[in-house]
Amino acid sequence: MAALSTNALAIALGALFDPETVKSPTAIAQYAPPSTPTHFFLPLKPNDVQLFNSSEIFRAETIGLNASLSCEALNALVKVENNTFKAGTVEIKNEVGNLRFRTTAYEDSGPLCEGSAKFEFRSLSNDGSITGIERGYNGSVAMEAYAQLKAASDNTRENEICGGLFPVIFSRTQPLSASNSFRFDPTTFRHKSIVCRPKLDVHRYEITFDTSGRIIRTAISENSADEKPRVFAGPITESQLLARMQLLLRSDLGDYSLNINAESGSRLYFSDNPLPRGWIDFMLQTIFSSTEAIDPQTPIQDIDINLIGEQLNVVYARVFSVALGIYHSRMFTRASPSAPQTEGVKFAPTVRVQISTSMFALTTTLLGFYFILAIYFYLFRVSRLFQRLPTSIASEIQLFHKSSVLDDVRGTELLTGRQRKAHLSRLNRRYGYGRFVGRDSILRVGIEREPLLDHMLNQEVRNQGLGKFGLTIEYWAQWLKKTLN
Question: What parts of the sequence cross the membrane (predicted)?
Answer without folding.
Answer: 359-379
